Amino acid sequence: MRYLFSRLLLMLPTLFVILLINFVVVQIAPGGPIEEQLDKIASEQQSLATQGFALANLNYIGSAGLSDEMLAELQTRFGYDLPVAERFWQMLSRFVQFDLGESFFQGQSVMSLIATKLPITMLLGALSLMVMYAAGVMIGLYKARYHRTMGDYLTTFVLAILHALPVVVLALFLLVLLAGVGTWQIFPLQGVVSDNFAAMNLFDKAKDLLWHLTLPVLASSLGSVAGIAYLTKFGLLAEFDKPYVLAMRTRGLPFSRIIYRQVLKNALLPVVAQLPMVVVGVLFTGNLLIEVIFGIDGIGRLGFDAVMQRDYPLMFGILYVFTLISMLTQLLFDLLYHYLDPRVDFAHVG
């Protein structure tokens, strides 16, 4: 309990430092929401001019640019009429109350946008983790039992290819192969649900959702199977030579029973230790490209749009939620690791 309380307290300065660093980076970076608006206006004027509209020759107020009053209004709207320190303090004061402010360009509160987009990202990440760890552990178990056989060498070759392929290449390959771009049209090209999703019953909705998410899940998970498989394999091989395994084999216990009831739990401890980083990577970084490629309207795509539009409240809101979830995930898996291996006591580490 003391360790849990200290870890929860440590989250406060961690959140503060992360938000401060990102706030400073944003302040010194070129461009901003006002410049983004001005660029949009300039591009619209140029587009109209190329279509034959000579705005400069018309009595059009936009042809002369924004007036000082309109620029001042934009400064006030985006909060740039306040000193930098005051803007940062106001942001922290709101974040403590989970008031993440309003999006500059979406016309909604940041919290409502995150709450709308987060479920599909969490579902995609959860399915990817399930496939990743199920396949990784099973392949690692197979490689350990049939070490230095033809099956071991063949799986090594396949895992090396999957591990070497970037996520973008793997996703495009799956689209070309299985989404009808070049060969078979087995899975949909983009999107999460079908057009008649609302008229389906609950079972058909679940089936339709899984059908649409099959390719994104495979593209997100297959490249990470190799690491889990090798952690499992070498963890099992290390356990096979330990005295308690040799003693059970001497007593005549079936080897499969020894593996599944005794050895596997100890061998998976390194796999569990890697879980926090894998979970955070899959949920909050790996899904960005997947959502963009497959047209999934999730939190990764929302963050990408926020960065492109310089939507600072949305950027900081997503960062705040991601950081908080990441730290809670790390804490949860630390407690899980202590449960699996009571010899590890994080409260007395160091």
CATH uppermost class of the largest domain: Mainly Alpha
The CATH architecture of the largest domain can be named as: Orthogonal Bundle
Oligomerization state of this entry? Answer: single chain
The CATH H-level superfamily of the largest domain is MetI-like
Shape: globular
Q: How many individual domains?
A: 2
Would you report the number of β strands?
A: 0
Note the main sheet. none
Distance between the termini: 18 Å
CATH topology tier name of the largest domain: MetI-like fold
Give a structural overview.
It is a single chain. The protein is an all-alpha fold and 350 residues long. The chain folds into 2 domains: 2-96, no CATH class; 110-348, MetI-like (MetI-like fold). It has 14 helices and no strands. Helix 8 (202-221) crosses helix 12, helix 12 packs antiparallel against helix 14 and helix 13 runs antiparallel to helix 14. 24% of the residues are buried. Pfam families: BPD_transp_1 (PF00528). This is Inner membrane ABC transporter permease protein yejB. Residues 118-337 form the ABC transmembrane type-1 domain.
Task: Name the features.
350 residues, MetI-like fold, 72% helix
Write a compact overview of the structure shown.
The chain has 350 residues and is mainly alpha-helical.
SSE layout and pairing:
Elements: H1 2-28, H2 33-50, H3 68-77, H4 84-96, H5 110-145, H6 150-164, H7 167-178, H8 202-221, H9 225-240, H10 243-250, H11 255-267, H12 269-293, H13 299-309, H14 312-340
Helix pairs in contact: 1-14, 5-8, 5-9, 5-12, 7-8, 7-12, 8-12, 9-11, 12-13, 12-14, 13-14
